[in-house]
Write a structure and sequence with these properties.
4 copies of one chain form a homotetramer. Chain A contains 11 helices and no strands. By secondary structure, the first copy, chain A, is mainly alpha-helical. The first copy, chain A, is elongated. The structure holds a DNA duplex.
Chain lengths: 214, 214, 214, 214
Amino acid sequence: MARRVGRVSAARAKAVPDRRRAILDAAVRVFARQGFHACRVSDIADEAGVAYGLLYHYFPSKDEVLSTLFLERWGVMLEMIREVDSQSLPAREKLGAIASFIVDSYAHDPDLMKVIIVEVTRAANSFGQTHLSQIREAYKMIAEIVTKAQEDGVFKREIDAQFAAMAFYGAIEQVLTGWIFGLLPQGEEHFERAKQLVVETVCGGLETPAPVST
Amino acid sequence: MARRVGRVSAARAKAVPDRRRAILDAAVRVFARQGFHACRVSDIADEAGVAYGLLYHYFPSKDEVLSTLFLERWGVMLEMIREVDSQSLPAREKLGAIASFIVDSYAHDPDLMKVIIVEVTRAANSFGQTHLSQIREAYKMIAEIVTKAQEDGVFKREIDAQFAAMAFYGAIEQVLTGWIFGLLPQGEEHFERAKQLVVETVCGGLETPAPVST
Amino acid sequence: MARRVGRVSAARAKAVPDRRRAILDAAVRVFARQGFHACRVSDIADEAGVAYGLLYHYFPSKDEVLSTLFLERWGVMLEMIREVDSQSLPAREKLGAIASFIVDSYAHDPDLMKVIIVEVTRAANSFGQTHLSQIREAYKMIAEIVTKAQEDGVFKREIDAQFAAMAFYGAIEQVLTGWIFGLLPQGEEHFERAKQLVVETVCGGLETPAPVST
Amino acid sequence: MARRVGRVSAARAKAVPDRRRAILDAAVRVFARQGFHACRVSDIADEAGVAYGLLYHYFPSKDEVLSTLFLERWGVMLEMIREVDSQSLPAREKLGAIASFIVDSYAHDPDLMKVIIVEVTRAANSFGQTHLSQIREAYKMIAEIVTKAQEDGVFKREIDAQFAAMAFYGAIEQVLTGWIFGLLPQGEEHFERAKQLVVETVCGGLETPAPVST
DNA sequence: GATGAATGAGATTTCATTCAT
DNA sequence: TATGAATGAAATCTCATTCAT
């Protein structure tokens, strides 16, 4: 009966505020601001405007709130990479699509991306461990793109695909980190430029082409 | 070669065990194994084989132990980058020296590098914030190397130096993260290879040179 | 007479045990028995029959428990002195009313008065400092009673009012201290007698009236 | 050889600083400033300019330092009261001598008197308990003075001697407390005046003599 | 659904005291 | 004597989680 989808109930859904969603959204802001460990469950509840006991109606634990946030978003990303991968496009464009998606994700919801990166993908001792298989999946798919490009003779074969995938993803994530830390300038313009630069850097290299010697 | 002391005083130094050093070394192992937040001060003391009150004899807090560890090592790295920077070498070699230093650091003491990366440089909400100026210093010096290379016409001018520095550092750190997480194969051979590949990737690019069209 | 509530709500009030009050009451007993510094927060919780985390639900710190106790009771006393002061009574009766109130307070709840005196009014280095303004307020109002009596020609003018107020209050507090330490005999009879004696001593003096010389 | 008294060795005694004394003197300052419980043994040692281990050469514990301080000074006071008591003087003058001694003690070394009062005589839960017999001794001797005066018909018989002793001592101590807390003005002049006023208040009473009715 | 009082394990930190040198 | 490194018991406070209402 609950969660009915359809026009009428959709209207009703608006009338009945979705507390679960409110808690998740609040958690993003609080985790981004204070960090997962430094915040209390009651901080999230306060931000969401609910009693903190309610959080335990929707989630079994504080950990699960973060995990939910991560899995939701990471799932979308994996989906997207999978789709890109299945198309027949030049490797550079595939990597460009991935970079674009990640940068757009940050542009659209910087707090969420900050939380995912800081509290999960970069947290080797806690959630990074828990969600290792999900994280690894992304690297694997990127590596496959590289492998294919190498087979096509477009990418150098001497650079290990696994390795290249890490370098590529690391470069993007570091740029996001730069934004998160306030080390790189932000803004629509910079976001767009970053998408191109990261691909150009990793695919084309920083060096200017060697002049053709006669 | 470094840290050599006169024979006599070296013997004496052995006679008096350096508990402070023992605590720092133990902290590295414990932080690496359990994470800074998940470990207790007594875990460090146990690992060091001392009473945990002694930790407070040498450090004002648990935080300060980690900070000391970070600053010690990061200081050495900054010093090294500064030295490399001052020499007149091709940009690729300068970046290669930096990559080598970082990889060697990991090869030599993986726990320490894990701690520095996981608990400091990637911990945006805690120690990453505290030591931001130190971290930024490294990025800045790398960016200067890129800038110089651009002025020399060796590096492409369209890729912002700041941005390139982040991409370069991010690529290396991600590779270390791969080792830390067990996502990339480790071993002397792989470490050596990584030094070359990261430079080749970022400087030369993943793509094969475009065939000279006639 | 005070605090009477409607029958129904009074019954209801009983149904819901006031844990905050229980903690305060337990704290009085524990502070009196062991002293503020020598007791642990868990001693208070045990005495109150609650988990000690609950104490932190109601009070931000152990200090605040004592402060609450002091301010509650001291406030009542200041109120009472203020009221006495406002009436038109002979100075001796006003001081008598104050002495009576303090002695009655002790007779009614010796532990509470012990705590207030030992841990606050006589604790120059800790809570005595914190609550100095409240303590001073009592002395000030007593001094005003003396001043008025001096203006009326009832009290000697050569004894500074501030000074007289301290002597008067000091005499009473010392008597309570005698009871607290077990140096003076206690009991309803002694309490009643003390009320008169302290006033007689300070107002009338210890000396017998000089015989009228002819 | 040590502790030789006499002219020559006295000169030497100056040359060899008395560390035990230095520690006691430092303890007075530190206890007065921070309170017994709030200060650390190392604070005392720092103030005395010695290593804190040395304190344990001269005293078995921190407690013992305070006890030594108290017993030294309180012993002198008991001695003095005993002497005064043995003389044949009017009760008022005997009490005056006691008040003078106490006030002079404060004038001469306010820190020491603060420590004795705050940390011992008023500390019902700790040192007040430990040294109860010593403290009681003073009250007893004062009470004896009162008793004798009552037998001589100089003091009213209806005011219990024990009680009068407490009131008298309490009045003085409260005045000292006023100085300690900064509630009463200090200075040579005020100290002298206080000696008279406390006796006049307790012996003569605050009230003006009743006019002789015919 | 919603609330927030109640729980209690567990963490950091302090500091009196000991003792080898 | 004199030092201060070393010890470890103990205390306060936090906060995720439970559950009666």
